[in-house]
Amino acid sequence: MLKWRVDYAKKVGGTMSLATTYAVVDIETTGTSIDGTNRMIQFSCVFVKNGQIINHFNTMVNPLMPIPKEVQHLTGITNKDVKKAPLFEDVAGTIFALLQGTTFVAHNINFDYRFLNAELERVGYPPCELQGIDTVQLSQILLPTLPSFKLSYLSEYLNLSHLHPHHADSDADATAQLLIFLLKRINNLPLRCLELIASFQNSLLMQTRLCFKESLTKRRHMPNTLPAHLQEIGGIVLRRFELTARAQQEGRYPRDEAAKKQLFANVLEWRPAQIEMMDYVHSLFQEKDKSRLVLEAPTGLGKTLGYLIPAAYTANAGGTVVISTATTVLQTQMQEQVLPLLQQILPFEITAAVLKGSQHYIDLEKFSWSLHQPQGKQTRLLQLRLLVWLTITKTGDLSELHLTKYQNPLFDEIRHHGLESLEPGSVFHDYDFVRRQRTYQANADLLITNHSYLLNHVEILSGSRNNLIIDEAQHLSSRALATNRAEIDFDELKILCDSLLVKIASRISFAFAQLEEQQFLTNAENREIAGNIRLIDQRIPELRNKLIQRFVPKNSIKQEFFESIVPVKRLRGFIKENYGSISYVTKAFANIDQEYQKLLQRFEQFKSADRLDKKAILFLNEFFELLRKLVACRQRWLRLRLDDLEKQEDETVVWLSLPLDHPNAHLRLQFGLLRVTNFLRPYIYEHFQHVLFVGASLLLPDDTEYTLDQLDLPHDTKVVQLPGAFDYHEQSLALIAADAPDVTYDLNEYVAYLAETLKNIVLNSNRQTLILFNSLAMIEKIYQLLSDAGVTLQREILAQGITGSNAKIMKHFRLSKDAVLLGAGTFWEGVDLPKDRLELLVITRLPFQAPNTLINRVKYHKLSLEGQDPFQNIALPEAMMRLKQGLGRLIRTPTDRGVVILLDSRVVTKTYGEQMKKVFPTTMPLKIIKSDEIRKQLLNFWEKR
């Protein structure tokens, strides 16, 4: 037996060829742990050879143990299905024999291969010693822009036959089809790509790399001709830069109904409210004088095309239209989903450029350098994915990878740091993606950006003929406040300076002395840089201690966390008293910034000329990363300028925070605007001829002034509210629990009520459910109670902050059919879940903001001094707007049906309850009931279907 294993092991790690037989395996089991406690319940294998499926093998397996309910629910395999099936020991010999001489393939090979071998050994067989390929990794490399690599998603995306997901026979067949597709795709990769991927021998699972090696061997004997749309630059294959010049074409805006119907023919359905919106937007852009329009376009109306069509006609006539939306995700959605549809409709060509901060783009020079450095397996896998992506992407925008998080250290290495960081002599300079972005911008009809970019780059975007559309305009003021917020972390500054000084003067490893030897910098430059960093390093602790003495009362020492407003007038007094130290630090920052830019440019020149050894390059990369972080602190430090503080005294809030429960706490001085009054109008709107403010949830019932104040607009600004597109009376139902305990009286009673009520709802209604909370702390409490009650064993519960990142949870939820999502914060808005992706919405509590946060205390106090009621003027309208946004998650298309449940009795018991009720769509049936009636109401609603 031992001899067999040694002899067979020699075959592993060889080569593959067209004659290779691939055994594509999928198994279903009682659990995922490979610890001997779980058993197989189904084994399936599909054999592939010469790019074709040649045979199948499938068997159910009796595990001699009950199949857990969650596994039955997932796979559809019941205890009855396996009761008369053979035991694994009865089929192990057949399976073992079938697999001999094949290459083992699985979608997540680490599970299927290891579990199968564990089972073989359990019943007395030797483990298989096969070459293995993982189709998950192949898919990640070859389909780099997909948001998911689950087999069900890949099957749908590639139109593969996959009739019964999570049945081993269907999964194995779909994986076999996937393998055939991926092997063909490998053969179509550029030769240079193949060479780079094949060179990273140990980065992929088992023998997955041999797929690339085999293709490379064949391709080396064939002509190496790149397709016309590709080019090789600096050893990396890139898509060629294609620029369509702006050209005014014939096309007049369709003014009458017949012309619009002709335009929409066979592409868009006729929506009267959308037509009305188009005409409003077109009229706005025809105004001779500067004009502003606030327009609420409810969900389902076709808002985006409602403004894009008239915007395109305006741009075609010679203007430029800037479109700003709330997030980069919405930018991507517009680019990938809406713009292609717009182009289908229009009788002329339109060009659009997507504008984001430089940090969203890949720096080709840095990426190229990273390929030659030692990397871990996960980072190397990511690099392989990027190599293939670079043959596809036109933009270099890293968000095209659709990752749920960008936390791999590689992204910090390869992110772009702006045009000023480019080296003119670099081989990649003329192909840089941020430079491409600026070129696209100069030639585009439509500029699509986000609120943050607009607020930070308005001077680049604006022009006398430019028109601005602010989509999701309800987010502009909060984004403006966030953009204007700054924080000086005194301890972070000290740590950065200490780290830099250690690197500069290290006697153990590489340091500045060696850089002098390689003539990268002079001794005078060494002393200049170190001297300025040392000055900051010495002055910061001194200023930190003085701030504590001045602003942190001695009796605060008993608190765990100290946070307090610092009156601007008192802060100005402090700055005047310590003007010498503060100005020295300010000057040192300026000197360091100047040296940083100079040395960064020199670094690129020395690298291009090959004048630095590997140790020097590694050292300087680490040093520049630290120095970049220090330089980034300069702009925040400038918030201490006396002139600026004096100008903004009435609208600026400054606060100081210091944790007191541990010795290494960071002292932070934070600055921010209280409101956007007299900020957005002069800094943003005045740069544009016409400005459209649009959103699905812009206006409160019977109140336009709140929205106009939030947008820093005069009260005589034109406001239009278009009619909704849905029949809420037939499509929806709202239930309000009149007996829910008041959370403001007894928190423990409320938590117990909430857990019990939610348990009854999710166990008695098998619908895709979103449950909205006001805090992560409450989600944690409820999730734990639901788990203790066994609910998580019977329903799939996804919980924000517990079961994964927001993006991962949302991705999982979109792919599910009867999951429950517990969410707060961003889940209240911007979540599009049409049809059966969301059928039940539970709002656990009216979304009032916490009144005792420092910022809210200041806002409320300031309003009180002005003789206004903070609750009526801030707290209530904010909660009503938030509730409106939350309700908007439920019905997204004319065919949706759904129920919203509000577990907060204050709508019934408080005087402001009537105002809250007005937020619900006017035709939505609204019932005030007891909590124990919810189940019956849900059953009645769904039976109507």
The total of beta strands comes to 25
Level-2 CATH architecture of the largest domain: 2-Layer Sandwich
The CATH topology assignment of the largest domain is: Nucleotidyltransferase, domain 5
Task: Name the CATH homologous superfamily of the largest domain.
Answer: Ribonuclease H-like superfamily/Ribonuclease H
Order of strands, main sheet, comes to: 10-11-9-12-17-8-18
Task: Return the average pLDDT rounded to an integer.
Answer: 89
- C-alpha Rg (nearest Å): 31 Å
Helical percentage: 40-55%
Domain count: the total is 4
Fraction of residues in β-strands: 5-15%
Continuous helix count: 40
Structural class: alpha/beta
- pLDDT below 50 for ≥5 consecutive residues: which ranges? 1-13
Global shape: globular
Tell me the distance between the termini: 64 Å
Please write the CATH class name of the largest domain. Alpha Beta
Sheet with the most strands, sense and barrel status: 7 strands, parallel
Labels describing this entry:
single chain; 945 residues; alpha/beta; Nucleotidyltransferase, domain 5; 4 domains; seven-stranded parallel beta sheet; 40 helices; 47% helix; 14% strand; globular; disordered N terminus; ATP binding; ATP-binding
Question: What does this protein structure show overall?
Answer:
The protein has 945 residues and is an alpha/beta fold. It folds into 4 domains: 2-225, Ribonuclease H-like superfamily/Ribonuclease H (Nucleotidyltransferase, domain 5, 2-Layer Sandwich), CATH 3.30.420; 362-430, no CATH class; 512-672, no CATH class; 728-943, P-loop containing nucleotide triphosphate hydrolases (Rossmann fold, 3-Layer(aba) Sandwich). The chain has 40 helices and 25 strands. The strands form 5 sheets. The chain has a 7-stranded parallel sheet, sandwiched between helices. Helix 7 packs across helix 8 (168-187) and helix 22 (490-505) packs antiparallel against helix 27. Residues 1-13 have low confidence and may be disordered.
